[in-house]
Specification:
Elements: E1 2-6, E2 12-18, H1 21-24, H2 30-43, H3 103-119, E3 123-126, H4 136-146, E4 153-157, H5 162-168, E5 174-178, H6 184-189, E6 192-196, H7 197-207
Parallel strand pairs: 1-3, 3-6, 4-5, 4-6
Antiparallel strand pairs: 1-2
Length: 210
């Protein structure tokens, strides 16, 4: 599968790259995508919600009134949930929401997501670029040239590039990641995926493993 390489001005460089059919041109596996996205979203949950039940409340354990003769219900502790300041009944507890997923399934899901973007013509390859200093204005100009200014886009770098990353950080509709940070959710959540030439080798190497 051959794709034209663009420069940061959105013009063709006259070069083409051969994208691996095993990564960018497979029959998408929807169930693998579902499992990988489900795991990703589950891992975003902190699970630190915790309420104090009666065993966690600080307070006296003495019986606050006699058992009988008061005309009211029995009460054995000031920490009872029916009293103000008492413990909570069946409150939320801390929980680990993380899920396990086979590596091969994750690779299949990412190949499927990239193949979907390729089928939709929402995938482009541009030559590697850098900025002399972090500057959002320069990054916006690159997006304008590529026709992505008003679109949700994912920019995939070969290696971490601090200037490019910092230049994009204030833009809510654009995310910059390295090829090792690529996930099925991020690929599908973006309207357009932009791959820098330097990221292709790493992507194909990581996702071609069986």
């Amino acid at each position: 599968m051959k794709v034209a390489v663009l420069d940061i001005k959105g013009k063709e460089t006259g070069r083409k790259v051969d994208l691996s059919d095993a990564v960018f041109k497979i029959e998408p596996n929807e169930h693998a995508i579902y499992l990988d996205v489900k795991q990703y979203l589950a891992h975003q949950r902190q699970g630190t919600h915790q309420a104090k039940e009666r065993g966690a409340i600080a307070g006296s354990t003495r019986k606050i009134k006699k058992q009988k003769g008061t005309g009211t219900a029995r009460a054995g502790s000031i920490k009872s949930p029916i009293f103000r300041g008492g413990g909570r009944i069946f409150g939320p507890r801390s929980k680990d929401y993380s899920q396990k997923l086979n590596k091969n399934v994750k690779r299949l899901a990412r190949r499927s997501a990239l193949s979907i973007k390729a089928q939709e013509n929402s995938l482009m390859v541009i030559e590697d670029f850098n900025f002399e200093a972090p500057k959002t204005k320069d990054f916006i100009q690159v997006l304008k040239s590529l026709g992505l200014e008003d679109k949700k886009s994912l920019i995939v770098l070969g290696d971490s590039n601090n200037n490019v990353y910092l230049s994009s950080r204030n833009l809510t509709r654009t995310e910059v990641v390295t090829n090792s940070e690529l996930s099925t959710y991020k690929i599908l959540n973006a309207q357009n995926v932009v791959l820098l030439e330097g990221s292709l080798e790493g992507i194909e190497s990581n996702l071609s493993k069986s």
